[in-house]
Structure formats: C-alpha cells, structure tokens
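Much of what follows relies on a compact textual record of a protein's fold. A complete example follows; check for yourself that the lines match position by position.
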Amino acid sequence: MKNKKTLSSLKKVLSYVRHHKALLFLSLLCAAISVILTLYVPIVIGDAIDYIIEPGKVAFDKITPMLIRIAIASIIAALAQWMQGIVNNKITYGVVQDIRNDAFGKLQSLPVSYSDTHAHGDIVSRIITDADQFSDGLLMGFSQLFTGVLTILGTLGFMFVINWKIALFVVLATPLSLFAASFIASRTHSLFKAQAEIRGTQTGYINEIIGNEKVVRAYGHEKEAIESFEEMNRQMEKCSLRAVFFSSLVNPTTRVVNSIVYAGVALIGALSVIANPTAFTVGSLSIFLSYANQYTKPFNEISGVATEFQNSLACAIRLFELIEAKPQTPDKENALVLDEARGNIEIKDIAFSYDPEKPLIRDFSLSVESGKRIAIVGPTGCGKTTFIGLLMRFYDVNDGEIDVDGTNIRDITRNSLRKSFGMVLQETWIKTATVRENIIMGKPDATDEEIIAAAKASHAHSFIKRLPNGYDTKISEDSGLSQGQKQLLCITRVMLALPPMLILDEATSSIDTRTEMKIQHAFATMMKGRTSFIVAHRLSTIREADTILVMKDGQIIESGTHKELLKKGGFYFELYHSQFKG
C-alpha cells in the first residue's frame, strides 16, 4: 500500500514536471554537452601519457595541442554545467510553485469542515515547509540524475570499446552497489514521512500557543506548554536521528563497494598491460581507470539523491493529500444566481450533526418574513453559530431544507447566496492591505464618499483619521489595532455593502459599552427593511428584535418578543435574570 502511494505521488510529480518540457530538453542538452566533453578529456590524457612514456624524448609538439583541447573542453563543460544548474533551478521552483498554488487554491474549494478537523498549523506546514523540503529533493534530483545517467551510459560504452572483458567485470559488480543503496533507502521513507508529520504537528502547536499566549500565561500554563513542546522535539529528534543514520549509510556503503570495483579494475588492467602492452597500453589503462571512476561516481551521487528523494516524496505525499482532499459539493449546473434577494426565509424541519452519532440540530423549523429581525440566544454549544453556518451553506443540512425566497439554497449558487448576506462575526479578519482595501471587500467599486459615510455610520471614521495615512494606512492582523478597532472595520464592510440579509454573530462583543450603544443605533438603521439574524450572549443587545429564538440542545424551546418571553418565566427568563441580577 505504501509503495503504491509512493508510486502514485511520483507519477503526479512527473505530471507537473511535464509542464516544463522546453526547460527539460535544455537541461538534458546541457547535461549531454557536459558529459561528452568530460568523457573526451580522459581520451586526450591517455594519448598524452602514451606520447610521454614512448622511448626517446617527450613529443612536446604533440602534447601542447592536447593541453589546449583539454582546456577548451573543460571550460565548455563547466559552462554547460553552470547553465544546467540555472535551468534545473527554474524547473524545480516552477514545479514547486505550481504544486503550492494548487494546494492553496484547493483550500478555497474545500468544505469548511476540512479546516475544522485539521490543525491550521499542519495545513500551513504542508503548503510552506513540506513544499520547501520537496523542492530541495527535486533540485538535487535534477542536478544529479541527467548527468549521472548519461555519464553511466557514456563511460560504459567507452569501456566496452577499450576492453570488453574488464568492462564486463565492472558491469557485473554494479548490482552490489545498487542493492546496498536501495536496501537502505527503502528503510528511510517511513522515517522521513513521520518526520514531516511531526513537523506539521509542531507548527500547529506553535500557532496554537502563540495565538493564545495571554490565556496560557493567565492560567500559568507555560511549564506545561514547554513540556509538551519538548516532548514533540524529542519525538522529532528520535525520528530525525534514525532517518539521518540510515540515509548516511548509503554513500559510504556504495563508496566501499565502488572502491573494491576500482581496485579490481586497476589490478586486472595492470596485468593486461604487462601481458600485452601493444594491445592495451598504459594510456589505455589510464583512460579505463578514469572511466571506471566516473562510472562509479554517479552511483554514489544517485544513491544520495535516492535517499533525499525519499524525504522529498514523503513531503509530496502530504501535499497531494491536501490537493486531492474531497472538495465541497459543487453548485448544480442550473443553480440560480440570487441577484436581488427579498429575504423571505423558510426553514423546514432541518437536522444537522458534525458527528453522525452526536446529533446537534434536529426538528428545527422557522419561517422568517422579509425585513424581520431574528435574535438567537442560548447556552454555549446549543447550535447558534452552527445554524448561521447552515444559512450561509458553510455546511449542508443532513435532513430537511432551507429556502430563500421560495428556493432551496442547494439550488442557489454558493457565491450569490453568501453575497446576499452581510456577516459580522465575533472573530475578526483583517487582510494585509490598506484600510480602504479592507473596507471595500464587499463593494470594490465604492467611492471615497461611500467609504467615509460607512465608516462614520459604524463609528470607525474617528480612529481611521488618527492613523498615519488615514484610509491609505497599511494594516494587518499584527499592525497594532485593538480588537475593537478591527471589529469596527469589519462592521464598516457590511455598512458599505448593505446586502439584503444580515448576520451579526456577537458583532459587538469586543467593543466598549459606550461605542456599543452607538453601534446598536447604527445597526438598527442598517437592519430596517433587511432580514437580520442576531446571535448574542448579552441579552441587552436583542431587546428590540421582532422574534427571539431560544435554543437548547439544537432545538428551539421558546420563541417570542423580549416582553413575551419574560412573561412566560421560562428558560429565557432565567438567562435574562442570571445576567442582570446574578
């Protein structure tokens, strides 16, 4: 099964490499020029040796042109190798760029449940670290493979021409080197795969700790965090040492085998020179020894490449696992594009669960007229945010249906459905761009007047003016904005786009009480005539809602206005008084 997966990944890598055919041909051409000229030099040297050891004086008139030819051939071979290195880099980083783009692009088409069930750090590790590790192995492969294969074939041909008997001895000894390399390399693959997985776990853990640093310190969890990370490091060290131990055996093992072969060639060749010096000269022996050395050298290099490529393939497998993850169900071919939604929503007996054995939402029905404000309250884990995810089709219901303006949302394109909702979540997201570019995400063609009006409506204009470059200030998640300021920018986005339906999920949770009062007034204006869903823990923010849904264990247990629910004296009554009198 493991070999099948490795072979499948290798085929996928080659499919990416095929996109760079012209560069591949150029690399092969450079390798051929380099190898041919490198193999030409020993012939000239061998002839020179025969001229030097001839009886009488050294024939300098014949040796000088040979030295010039050696110099020219060596320079051209070096230039070809240099050019091949540049081309191989272009191929390698082109392939890695394509794979990395495909991996990141795939993230955009995966269901939200994928990021819910995979550590974010591990996903980052696959796209960044694993891709880098893969590029290292691929570059080494391109650098050694073409030249190595051509060198082996070229030297083998010349050796058979010079002395087929000694050449046959070299060929028969070759499997010993190959067997040693393949035996060791086969044991390193699983270790490199485990190494990549541990690296992904480490990245995820570091992200988790850094992202929650204040909580870690508030609870005095530093020691436990360090101990957990040290345990991961111990696992990484153990796995890495074993992988390096086995991979480091490859080169010396093949060198020992090749040295024995080289010594055998020298011995047999010397005996041949003594036996018949006219048929097999000292120069011929020099040429043969040079070729025998060049013949065995690629096996050392290729065996090293094979080991490194095991690590590279282990990383490639993790990348392809992401690229080939099951995407979200595509929109239907004849799916409706929701251009101007009125906001009538009908929820018919829906059921949903993340885990089939643990139902979360069940027997949930609701009818919402256009322009109504629906507040959803309930204890943590009752399904409030999950219900919002179902409205936006981040998840599909397991049973029942949700209709917008009489159309099942499964029959509406996801993009048009989501654009019909303006969403402000408790978790803010600021992209690395200017303030202006962050605000216009929902309405790219907005004018400056519209942007400023939206910012004033959300009470963000005053703090934006104080930024170094106002609306043209470059910001990011780490740019020093407070959580409240980030949330004001997110609210401004919705204020600008003003879609027909709104979702406010704890939208003012990070804003001070004074600003919240202003925001609530702005929200009231924004929600007029728009179907709105408000998820809130602070019940003071939802008193004016047309209908309040009280959820518990995935079901609606009460509904009505604020006053009606207080009069009932039920679960809402208890929640309300626990906040204001508890």
The mean pLDDT is 83. DSSP finds 18 helices and twelve strands in the chain. The first helix runs from residue 2 to 17.
